[in-house]
Amino acid sequence: TDSMREGKPVAVETRHLIQVCVPRSSCLFSTTPTPVSTVSQYACQRRTTTKNNNKIFTDAFEVLAESHELNDMEGPCLAFRRAASVLKSLPWTVQNLRVTEDLPCLGEHSMCVIEEILQHGHSFEVEKILSDERYQILKLFTSVFGVGPKTAEKWYRRGLRSFSDVLAEPGIRLNRMQQSGFLHYGDISRAVSKAEAQALGNIIDEAVRAITPDAILTLTGGFRRGKDFGHDVDFIVTTPQLGKEERLLTSVIDRLKQQGILLYCEYQASTFDESKLPSHRFEAMDHFAKCFLILRLEDSQVEGGLQTAEEDRRGWRAVRVDLVSPPVDRYAFTLLGWSGSRQFERDLRRFARMERRMLLDNHALYDKTKKEFLAATTEKDIFAHLGLEYIEPWQRNA
Ligand code: DCT
Ligand code: MG
Question: What angle do CA 81, 83, 87 make, to 5 degrees?
Fold first, then answer.
């Protein structure tokens, strides 16, 4: 299965390829072996831009990954995410099944899906998932800000099938995040454009400067990777003076509130504790002070205006914004962690652990052999510590 092939060294794939593709007798005549793929099994050793030459396949794999995720099957989910990620990195389009044989992370199941698509233009398995009621409803519910797979599943099991079912159900108490999620659903389920991200950058920059003129503000997440659209806008804010960063975030929030543009705010104070590093368990979120916001963005603030529908003449939209505020000596680790993509991050950590006996997260890099932390002031420092070629942010769309 796909999950069994995870982590299989590339060398094994190579041997397999030569056995399958090169007739034994030809070995007598050829001095050089058949050229084999150098595509790494790790996303952090591949360059992946936003140009995807294999969207027809990767879209299918992403449906399969999501379907397994919604069924709490982490192994197969990750295997399909890896398969999608490998295909995203290719500068060419897969046109026959043979060329995929020397690629890593493509299991039997993935190969079958590619074969189906090559033959029929689509995968019957994927079509079946897309038309499955449970899949459709769980996707709908999890599209609400604050609703994860567990809550969606709970609602589905209660027999709820639509937003109006959920909102009419007396036994359901929505938390504050979910209430905002429903309230601003139309706006925040619509993609954020680059121009809108830029406008939000100006707003946050103005707020940050008013509080601390020498503050550091960096656009991160998908927009730093050169994406044209995102589901939110992510920023890192910090100050050159160690320790001042936490107050900065609460001051920024206060200012946005005073400006009347704060539609929702969940603030999480820092729980960062240097003495608890290195963290051995994988954590989805870091311990720095952060906030998840919904901001009101005016049409007049966006170059070229908001891309709203003809009939929607409100002159503003709601946008999801995340701010994270690490101490400045952790800036490089936070920047690398929040720049993504998720798959790139997963593989950076897996590479560090499996190939270098190091532990990497958004806080630090720890060398288990030397039993010491490796300091970094830039992302390049971290790549160098890991013995990896530097990958530019726009090449991290794995
Ligand atoms: N991240 C991560 N692990 C998580 C959540 C986030 O490594 N569990 C990192 C990767 C991307 C970054 O944080 C910001 O997260 P998102 O905004 O969800 O991702 P994105 O790449 O910015 O995608 P989008 O363009 O849709 O916002
Ligand atoms: Mg984002």
Answer: 115
Site to substitute for ligand 1 among 232, 342, 360, most atoms within 8 A of C-beta: 342
Count other Cβ atoms within 10 Å, centred on residue 169: 13
- Selecting among 2, 232, 286, 347, the annotated active-site residue is 232
322 catalytic residue (yes or no): yes
Paired tokens of 226: 């050169």
Q: What is the ipTM of this complex?
A: 0.97
pLDDT on residue 278? 85
> What residues contact residue 161 under an 8 Å CB cut-off, 6+ apart?
133, 137
pLDDT tens figures, 169-191: 999 999 999 999 999 999 999 99
How far is the centre of ligand 2, averaged over its atoms, from the C-alpha of 219 (Å)? 10
Please pick, among 322, 329, 367, 381, the residue that the annotation labels catalytic: 322
Query: How distant, in Å, are the alpha carbons of 49, 216, 233 from that of 206?
Result: 31, 12, 16
Separation CA 352–CA 376 (nearest Å): 15
What is the C-alpha separation between 261 and 248, in angstroms, rounded?
A: 18
Q: How far apart are CA 100 and CA 114, in angstroms?
A: 9
Amino acid, single-letter form, for residue 222: G
Ligand 2 geometric centre to CA of 92 (Å):
27
Pairing mode of beta strands 262-268, 289-298? antiparallel
**316-325 and 233-238 beta bridge pairing:** parallel
